[in-house]
Every structure is written in C-alpha cells, then in structure tokens.
Amino acid sequence: MDWNRVEGNWKQVKGKVKEQWGKLTDDDLDRIAGKRDQLEIQERYGIEKDRARRDIDDWYSRQGW
pLDDT tens, 13-58? Predict the structure, then answer.
C-alpha cells in the first residue's frame, strides 16, 4: 500500500496516528490532512526531520493494511 491510501482514509487513520503520536492535537491532525510531509515536519516532538521520517516509516510498516 502506498501513502495515497492513508490520505484517502485519513478520517479513519487519524485515530491510529493519535495513538502513536499522542501529543498531536486534533487541530494538528486536521492541518496534516493525511499529507506525509506535513506529518514529518510536526515539531511537537522536537525531533529532526530525518528521525521523524524513520519513525513514520516504522509506524507505517507496522499497520495491517
């Protein structure tokens, strides 16, 4: 599955994202709107973009799509 499926099902996926990154607010999730690059640049966790990208890849690979 590619990231387009996440974007297309964002309303359903938001809960899983919130479970993984609980510091993200509902407003953050609405702004992200399934866009991977927006999720990567969230600064709430104070991590660099490369680390965020790896974390997202790890999370994505664990999903049972």
Answer: 999 999 999 989 999 999 899 998 888 876 777 788 888 889 999 9
Closest listed residue to residue 59, CA positions, set 19, 25, 26, 23: 19
53 with 59: CB under 8 angstroms?
A: no
CB 4 within 8 A of CB 24: no
Using an 8 Å Cβ cutoff, are 3 and 50 in contact? no
Other Cβ atoms within 10 Å of 45 Cβ, number: 12
pTM score > 0.85 for this model?
A: no
Alpha carbons within 13 angstroms on the beta-carbon side of residue 8 total 5
